[in-house]
Amino acid sequence: MKAYRITKRKHKDTAFSGSGARQYGGRWNLPNHPAVYLSESIALAQLEILVNLGEENSLRNYLLFQIEVPDSQIMALADDAYPKGWDGTKVSAGTQEVGTDFLIDGEALALAVRSCVVPQEYNLIFNPEHPEAEAVIKDAAKIRFQFDARLSPNS
Question: What pLDDT shows up at residue 104?
Answer without folding.
Answer: 97
